[in-house]
Amino acid sequence: MDKPDWAGPLTEAYERSLGYLTALPDRPVGNTMNWPDLREALGGPLPEGPEDARDVVAKLATAAEPGLVNTPSGRFFGFVVGGAHPAALAADWLATTWDQNACLAALAPSASAVEEVAGEWLVRLFGLPVQTSVGFVTGGQMANFTALAAARHEMLRREGWDVEADGLAGAPRLRVLAGRQRHDSIDRALRFLGLGRNAITPVETDDQGRMRPDALAEALAEGGGPTIVCAQIGGVNTGAFDPVGEICAIAHEAGAWVHVDGAFGLWAAAVPRLRHLTAGVEQADSWATDGHKWLNVPYDSGMVFCAHPEAHRAAMGIRAGYLIHGADGERDAIDYTPDFSRRARGFAVYAAIRTLGRTGIADLVERCCTLAARFAERLAAHDDVEVLNDVSLNQVLVRFLSPDGDHDGHTRAVVDRVQREGTCWMSGTIWQGRAAMRISVSNWSTDQDDVDRSVEAILRCARPDAGDR
Fold this sequence. Notes:
Aspartate Aminotransferase, domain 1, aminotransferase, Aromatic_deC, Aspartate aminotransferase family protein, transferase, lyase
């Protein structure tokens, strides 16, 4: 076997990575090169022959870095994106080096074992039932998809229908009840599952986006048949929590399956001060969350949990003569996720949990929530700034008032200026028909200085004459 040059390209990658990460506090958070220039820098004709691997890595890094939105920065507050904790990043490098296909225990024994251990830790951390099964997927979208596939299986099985064998043609119609302020990944999952968006009956919500239990009870009473109720903890705009305990009681009384979309809100269950927000969450039938949000592991990382392992395996599992399935209790990840070929995502999750521990995870989440409250307090102190939500978690919705009355246009302009100015990066959104800036504090490295610097930059960009400079 030839001895390849591992040292050259890996040394270059290490040096570039370390340089990038150590310079993050001083880097503009947004990208500094536009798309056409990036395309030109990275483009060119199809290479005709080989090139030195270290040179390739160096040229790639040089060309790509100006187009990076520096999401690992402590001053990136767009969407709900955490940074990568050092231990998780290092474990993810190892996962890439080891290059395991983590679908089968026979193919990747260590990956199988570490996912089983990390999954058990997460079940305990969130206070879920001990028999809960766990799948490691790409993110919240596929976590919701997988959980709803298990729900589809179980609810149709109770009606005497085998959806895995017979499909949906002729099947009893499933209805899905979900709050009006649900995340779009619920709708998208239902499209993937063949149920369609129109399977959803929207349930009314309050002014913060929380599902109203009385409205759910009315919706359940209006129709029968197999039903899935989708609750949400941690609304993507306001951070609000559906009253999941009440929802579970009402839905289970009607024989429905309850799925909880907890992409980032489920992590509040790990924090003593915030745990009341998730009261009753353990009564649900399935749950979805992200690791690349509040656990701060590298992309991609999501987890699906199911209180009915048989339904989970029935919806996802596959058997084939050429596959070597686990015996003697070995865990085959292919039974719990949609993938055949899949990355060994559990190593980074394991490293993050082991490094932080229960108390470290709680501190990370609580610190982000405290800093979000600081954002809201400092911005709301200015007459031309309006905070639109009750800041109960890590999300802050901000609107900027304009002397000419065009508050939507001014708010969008402020978001654009902030992104281009570079001190920090926030995203825009629409909340109850009004334009807003959405601030999400999710990064392990964010501190009070990051918040204060960002507030100052936002207020500069919000001045009426800011667009003239």
